[in-house]
Amino acid sequence: MIDIGYNATLVAIGAGLLGIAAGVIGAFLYLRKRSLVSDAISHATLPGVALAFLVMVALGGDGRNLVALLAGAALSALAGLGVVHWLNQRTRLGEDAAIGAVLSVFFGFGVVLLTVIQTIGAGRQAGLETFLLGSTAGMLRADAWVIAAGGALSLLACTILRRPMTMVSFDPEYAATQGLNPARVDMAMMALALAVTVVGLKIVGLILIVALLILPAVAARFWTERSEVVALLAGLFGGVSGTAGAVISSLAPDLPTGPIIVLVAAAVFIASLLLAPQRGVMAGALEWLRFRHRVHMRQGLLALAHGHTVYEPYTMRLLRGAGLIRADGVATEKGRAHAARAALDERRWQHLRSRSENAALAARYDGLTPVETWLTPDQIATLDREMTGSGGAA
Amino acid sequence: MGAEFVALSLPPILIGSLAALACALPGNFLLLRRQALIGDAISHVVLPGIVVGFLLTGTVSTWPMLLGAAAAALVAVGAIQLIQRIGRIEPGAAMGVVFTTLFAAGVLLLEQSDTSNVHLDVQHALYGNLESLIWIDATGWQSLLDPEALAWMPPELIRMALVCLIVMAFIGLLWRPLAISTFDEGFARTLGIPATLLGLALVTVSAIAAVAAFDAVGSIIVIAMFICPPATARLMTDRLAVQVALSAVFALVSAVVGYVLAGYGPIWLGYADAVSAAGMIATVSGLLLAAAALVGPRRRGQSA
């Protein structure tokens, strides 16, 4: 067991819980095609953090109370979210423009406030910059507890709202007929995204927290078509990224927590992109190779059946490998049998396609699939009788 | 006032204005094409680009870092397209995947490499340091006519002016095809306009503007200027030419007013130090947008 210390363990647990919650919420955001709204939310936290600090200092405190700072972050993120919603609903601007405007303006205003803080009390602001990129080094025990508890609470809220969120992200109209209010569920979803963002500020930082809401969800989407499974998998990926990232970064001094967590999540994404069955790159490549194999095999056999010589090197290699032709290109016994079967299949298809009543079946013709795939032996026998019948009449 | 203003405030105001203009102009087309967040993505991936440029050359010299940033921007745009195509992922999420990953890699590289003795950090990349772009040799307005002093203008000013010219030339020369393909890509194709290529060229020009502006003023201004002035102008008019002209005006107003407020505002209020000019410029552009969203004549779209 790696001993990383009490605080680091708490942080790792908190990051894991946070990662699960972020993955699940991110999956719903992704299915609703609103992933980047979380980028506006996270950048909009900065002025709130700075204002909370200023208020605390004005009241005579030292301005480092994490709960108060996070409360400020939540309030200004809420304001940012409200502005995105308002710009999108009440003006002709699209959601992407609303997101970009809110994230840059709120962030810019936050930076102005940070320089104000620097001006009024140099040195005392130390710590606020860590909200940009996250930092867990030298974290207070109480702060570590806040993060672990925040992660647990967000996860709990996700679990409670799991059903309505699944229904709305799968089919909002159907959900509405079931008595759900999609707009309200969307709002709850955004509130949860906001909670995850705020809790994650101290660990991952406001610039990169959006990654925890996007990467696990997109990675999970590669593995399945079902929304509740996407959410579960995204939670798993997010939890693994959060925990692994926090543990790895606690092992050496120069490994910043936020970027490491994001890079672990990115590794999971790349693995999914490459390896996922059906939607992954490798599966796609294999499918293509298999298709190429079938096309060349079929064309080679038809050429043999018509007594042509095969010159195309890949087809020759295939036929040779299957023992269907000799080195000089002449068909073997087995090759002639296979070729005859392919030619018969092609003739059956042509007959089928020449008859208008077979339109539905004829549409399945792809030049590759044997007719036996679609017809029963009885039907084929009838087909053969028709073929010889019409052949005899001609 | 004269000598100090020309030496300390004129260059940052000019550079800020040029940067704002270079980003706002292509921003109009990105906004209408629903690609407004491209500027955001590019300005994030610039960080790993400059870090790699620095690591390869070992010095904080401008050209390797600019080239690194431009390369990173192109890599990011390519990766976004690739992930979108092969993974069948919606554009917003594909963008989010790429820019967060590259930015995280940039931060990690920065922390791992020994940059303690050079001025290269994340804060600098975000805020820029507009205030430090001063013209020491200027002794007053007459320096603008003095070739010897002019030779010592901040190099960012000349670079930014050049990029601004490139952007204006691109938009001016390709105005009609750009406008047509922005509003109706299918129609543009029937006219024989290579719409895909043109879209790529637009993104490339935007990347050039973003990288140059980022070097001079940091990424906050870049993101804000790509979006806020065009969005503000869009709420004022239905005509593209008017929108582009208005966006240029709003960009310039944001840059000048923002800089002046940041530099002199606190002094007027009785404080000694200035606040972040980059942040203030973004804030002013946001206030302009808010005003247009509340009372702009075309804020709701088609009016009767």
UniProtKB/TrEMBL annotation, chain A:
Q: What are the protein's UniProt keywords?
A: Cell membrane, Membrane, Transmembrane, Transmembrane helix, Transport
Q: Which is a GO BP term held by this UniProt record?
A: response to zinc ion
> Membrane spanning segments where?
6-31, 43-60, 66-87, 99-122, 142-161, 230-252, 258-276
For this protein, the record's Gene3D superfamilies field holds: ABC transporter involved in vitamin B12 uptake, BtuC
Q: In its keyword annotation, does this UniProt entry include Cell membrane?
A: yes
The record ties this protein, via SUPFAM superfamilies, to: ABC transporter involved in vitamin B12 uptake, BtuC
Q: Name one GO cellular component term.
A: ATP-binding cassette (ABC) transporter complex
Question: What membrane topology does the annotation report for this chain?
Answer: Multi-pass membrane protein
Q: Which InterPro entries does the UniProt record give?
A: ABC_BtuC-like (IPR037294), ABC_TroCD (IPR001626)
Record localization = Cell membrane
Q: Which residues form a coiled coil?
A: none
Keyword Transmembrane applies: yes
The family annotation for this protein states:
Belongs to the ABC-3 integral membrane protein family.
Q: PANTHER family from the xrefs?
A: ABC-TRANSPORTER METAL-BINDING PROTEIN, METAL TRANSPORT SYSTEM MEMBRANE PROTEIN CT_069-RELATED
Please report the name of this protein according to its UniProt entry.
Zinc/manganese/iron ABC transporter, permease protein
UniProtKB/TrEMBL annotation, chain B:
Positions of transmembrane segments: 6-25, 37-56, 62-80, 92-110, 157-175, 187-210, 216-233, 240-262, 274-295
This chain belongs to the protein called Zinc/manganese/iron ABC transporter, permease protein
Q: Which UniProt keywords apply?
A: Cell membrane, Membrane, Transmembrane, Transmembrane helix, Transport
Pfam family name, one: ABC-3
Q: Name one GO biological process term.
A: transmembrane transport
Q: How does it sit in the membrane?
A: Multi-pass membrane protein
Q: Which family does it belong to?
A: Belongs to the ABC-3 integral membrane protein family.
**Cellular location(s):** Cell membrane
- Record's Gene Ontology CC terms? ATP-binding cassette (ABC) transporter complex
Top-level taxon:
Bacteria
Please tell me whether the keyword Protein biosynthesis is annotated for this protein.
no
Q: Which InterPro entries match?
A: ABC_BtuC-like, ABC_TroCD
